[in-house]
Amino acid sequence: MSNDKIWLSSPHMGGNELKYIHSAFEENWIAPLGPNVSGFEQDIQSYLSSEDVKVEVAALSSGTAALHLALILLGVKRGDEVLCQTMTFAASANPIVYQGATPIFIDSEEKTLNLCPAQLEKAIKDRIQKGKKPKAIIAVHLYGMPYQVEKINKISMEYDIPVIEDSAEALGSTYKGRKCGTFSPFSILSFNGNKIITTSGGGALVTHSNEDKKEAIFLATQARDEAPHYQHSHIGYNYRLSNISAGIGRGQMEVIDERVSQRRDMFHFYVNLFKDFDGIEVKAEPSKDYFSNHWLTVIWVDEDITGFSREALRLHLEGNNIESRPLWKPMHMQPVFKDADFYGTGIAEELFKNGLCLPSGSNLNDIEKARIKTAILNFIEK
Ligand SMILES: *Cc1c(COP(=O)(O)O)cnc(C)c1O
């Protein structure tokens, strides 16, 4: 049996990506604009929009760039404070610092692993009492699991602090039937190589108005004023998506529903694998309101029951050339954010200690699944 590396999440082409890339070459649209860019934006707009909400999409060079532009469009400036989920990838928090603002980190709750509404509210009250009302809240649908949308939005409304919805990992997830990426005036997507669909590298800002989309594209293309010469009244950025990359994205959007169902199949594969095993919980949707794309399947290892740590399991898998990974190391535990304020009770820390992401790619075949199954059973049953 082949012992090739099994990856956590690898690119999975649909088949038509090259067709769109060829048309870019044929028409010489080798630029950060062109028919693939607008076509890709249209594809995502149609996919996310519903009777409840119509969204506009600006295709960008990365999800990080999209977060940066969202902060700028919300007026976040030097000295401001921005609340951010601590349990996330650093790209959720870094753009706060690009703006010269200060991140304040908030713990997770155990149901969705995402922003804890109680700690969020506590933080807001405390910051207001200290004399500075936070400018924005960055909430993340981590690993594809929707956060507690209604509770978070209620707090956002009550204190009048906008939410930026980090949906980088959640394309195809829904909450009460509505797609993640549509619950806030600004949401972001990522199409990096390991995400549920990829453009090799890329991202998007999702807005609720055409003005916001236009403003984002203006800033993403060096903020040129209307003039025959180059004239600038704002600082701009070079954040637009290439027409070649967007071609990959168009091919990928043709298979997004298939990719969601394949990722969810991987989740059910693990639910089945661990169903009779005490001390390992496969993190599932807390109720029928939640529908996760299960970008990555997460397990929680209770060492007191299993007798082994998640790290022992991870190393065993690595020995079998199977990649698995601890959950994101919380931002308040990162050396670079060691001085940042944090509101929480240690849940994110526990998740980091005991949680493990298992191979979840939509392209894992039966032979690879059998290898994963054998490797895990050999370890947990011994
Ligand atoms: C991938 C990711 C990002 C950043 O997206 P890039 O396209 O890699 O810049 C932001 N937030 C989360 C939660 C992510 O997983």
From TrEMBL:
<keyword id="KW-0808">Transferase</keyword>
<keyword id="KW-0663">Pyridoxal phosphate</keyword>
<comment type="similarity">
    <text>Belongs to the DegT/DnrJ/EryC1 family.</text>
</comment>
<dbReference type="GO" id="GO:0008483">
    <property type="term" value="F:transaminase activity"/>
</dbReference>
<keyword id="KW-0032">Aminotransferase</keyword>
<dbReference type="InterPro" id="IPR015424">
    <property type="entry name" value="PyrdxlP-dep_Trfase"/>
</dbReference>
<dbReference type="InterPro" id="IPR015421">
    <property type="entry name" value="PyrdxlP-dep_Trfase_major"/>
</dbReference>
<dbReference type="Pfam" id="PF01041">
    <property type="entry name" value="DegT_DnrJ_EryC1"/>
</dbReference>
<dbReference type="InterPro" id="IPR015422">
    <property type="entry name" value="PyrdxlP-dep_Trfase_small"/>
</dbReference>
<dbReference type="InterPro" id="IPR000653">
    <property type="entry name" value="DegT/StrS_aminotransferase"/>
</dbReference>
<protein>
    <submittedName>
        <fullName>DegT/DnrJ/EryC1/StrS family aminotransferase</fullName>
    </submittedName>
</protein>
